[in-house]
Amino acid sequence: MRQIHLVAFLQAQNCTTLPAAWRHPDARTDTYSPAYYKHIARVLEAGKFDVGFFDDRLAMPDMYSGDHAHTVENGIRCVKLDAVTCLMTMAAATERLGLGATYSTTYYEPFHVARLFQTIDLMTEGRAAWNVVTSVNDNEARNMGRGDHVIEHDTRYDRADEFMEIVHGHWDSWDDDAIVADKVNNLYAHPDKVRRIDYQGQFMSSRGPFTVPRSPQGHPVVMQAGMSGRGQRFAARWGELLFVSYRKLADGKESYRRQKEAAAALGRDPDTMKIASLFYPMVAETRAEAEDKKAAYDKLPNEMDQLSLLSEALNYDFAKKGLDEAFTDEEIAGITGMQSMRDRVVQAGYPNPTVRDFMRVTGRGLLHEPWVGSGKDIADKMEEWWSAPACDGFVVGPTHQPGTFEDFVRYVVPELQRRGIYREDYTGATLRDHLGLARPAIGAWRLPAA
After folding, report:
1. Which of 315, 319, 400, 430 lies in disulfide reach of 65, CB 3.0 to 4.6 Å?
2. What whole-number distance in Å separates Cα of residue 282 and Cα of residue 266?
3. Distances, alpha carbon 135 to alpha carbons 240, 289, 295, 443, in Å
4. What is the DSSP string of 397-424?
5. 198: left (phi over 0), alpha (psi -120 to 50) or beta
């Protein structure tokens, strides 16, 4: 029976994706303590979440004015811990919760990423996920010793395809029965069951042999959040758990249909791809109480939150423009960051938008169109989207931590369970079990021959 999947949207930083989150009266400020991450992990496991995953960037958002002072002063994602280390802290406090982390195909080597996440899958007994991203920000490039970020948008994904082929090739290097550990006959593993990949592509190469045996899940679950045309094609090929964000149900239904069809066109079973839609719940015992929470939260953000995060996401210093100064055609075309965000503003009827138009249309840095209400109200809307279908599940974005997850588990999860559309308990040990994804056979990732 089809059921809703739940993903927790986590950050190993001083706030959530919303920079105002740390200002919330109920937000914990010990966001660099192990106790903080252990507590969140236990809350999510009590709520039977499929997975919690860490979004990540490799720089604080200091693009605006070319200075980090505003970032640190306003607490705009200025503390960024290593997500994998935080993930393992959470793994030690739980038994079933799936755990994922973001790693960039732009700044890490595929052998390293393959080894890291396959090891995590072994150490968590099959609960690991890798959220694949291609980095877009000049300041990340500078931190990683690459100068300005100059890789063209579609080329990033062409290169990432090769990265994924290498990673999957290494993950498939060991047969399940390669290791026998026969001490009497001095045979640790069958040599013919461990292979080199000898990969040579246009952008990347890797030899092998890989040094990590096959894991409980076969390999970690691959998460992906590409929203642009090229990013959607990349997701159709590689994504097993997709992170999407749509504000209207009709848009979600259409995107869901197209993404599943794109996977099928590549020879994939569309059911091997689960699509989860982001939303930010503000829930309380009654709708009136939830609306009061929303009113109080709306007082927390400031203008700098938006300007800083727009500059980071679009890889453009918004301090160069006045708030009501229009972008030229050349400036719009030259934006090298998240092009789906840029395109959304233009398609909203602003071919030459002002900075204020960008702020208004994107809602970047703000709590934009949250779902506000009682547990029943939130469950009603979730069931509507899931039944449409516009998604297979939801990414729960927190307004503050750990309170958002505590409220969601207290008020919404029991209502979903009462309706029979969400699990009462975990029925398997691995993240693939939770998601209803089969353990992949060796070579299952390869495209069918044309």
Report:
1. 319
2. 39
3. 20, 40, 35, 27
4. --SSTTHHHHHIIIIIHHHHHHTTSS-S
5. left
Beta strands in 161-300 (DSSP E): 179-182, 187-189, 199-200, 205-206, 221-224, 241-244, 274-279, 281-284
Distances (CA, A) of 256 to 4, 264, 374: 15, 12, 27
Q: Give CA–CA dist 355/339, Å, rounded.
A: 16
What pLDDT digit, counting tens, does each position of 139-189 carry? 888 898 887 655 777 888 999 999 999 999 999 999 999 999 999 999 999
pLDDT averaged over every residue in the chain = 94
- Please say if the pLDDT value at position 230 is more than 90: no
The alpha carbon dihedral of 285, 286, 288, 291 has a sign of positive
Task: Judge contact between 174 and 214, C-beta under 8 A.
Answer: yes
Nearest to 50, CA basis, from 241, 282, 283 = 241
> If we measure between CA atoms, which residue out of 14, 15, 45 comes closest to residue 397?
15
In whole angstroms, give the CA distance from residue 71 to residue 14. 12
What residue type is 188 in one-letter code? Y
Distance CA 86, CA 83 (A): 5
Distances (CA, A) of 403 to 140, 233, 283: 31, 36, 10
pLDDT-derived band at 331, boundaries 50, 70, 90: very high
Query: Which amino acid belongs to residue 13?
Result: Q
Task: Provide mean pLDDT across the span 216-223.
Answer: 97
Q: How many other C-beta atoms can be found within 10 angstroms of the C-beta atom of residue 3?
A: 16
Q: Dump pLDDT digits (tens) for 31-43.
A: 999 999 999 999 9
Other C-beta atoms closer than 10 Å to the C-beta of 85 total: 12
Contact 214, 124 (CB under 8 A): no
Q: What is the pLDDT of residue 323?
A: 94
Q: Which pLDDT belongs to residue 337?
A: 81
CB 216 within 8 A of CB 143: no
